[in-house]
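Sorry, I am new here, but would you mind making up a protein's amino acid sequence and the tokens describing how it folds?
***
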Amino acid sequence: MLEFFQQKTVAKRTFLLQPGEIDRHVYFVTRGCLRMFYTDMEGLEHNICFYPENWWSCDIVSFFKEKPAVNAIQALEDSEVYYMSLSRLEELFVAIPKFERFFRILVQNGFDLYQKRITSSLSKTAEERYLEFRKIYPGLESRIAQKHIATYLGITPVFLSMMRKEKQL
């Protein structure tokens, strides 16, 4: 299976995808952490997802439909990734049919995570969302900037700091 992948080291702050580009690769993170984020009309960034070790990353709509991405993917830490193109992924599905099932389940689990994230942001308090973040991404808060966690939670870094201090979270 590894023959279908390429490997590269990605320096912190490097963009793997910019808005408007077509996402040409799916990534598997072996070291470090990536993030996917959206930048609104006022220039504010909104973190959608983090991809630490052993997570897969891509803008799924852009990758599979070959459409320009609205999101960006950037390394938050020096990272190592395995990656492959859509055509290589299709070749892998033919060569190892069980991988197609694995990837389908992976996409289903990712969709489940996105739905839970949307529901959480609509119905839970900031503290509940923060505790959920810690459960989904254990140990990540000590590795990435507080501002990234805050934008993921939909709050300001100052509010996150106050909440953590007040609740000793």
Notes: The mean pLDDT is 94. Helices lie at 60-65, 86-95, 97-123, 126-136, 146-153, 157-167. The first strand starts at residue 6 and ends at 10.
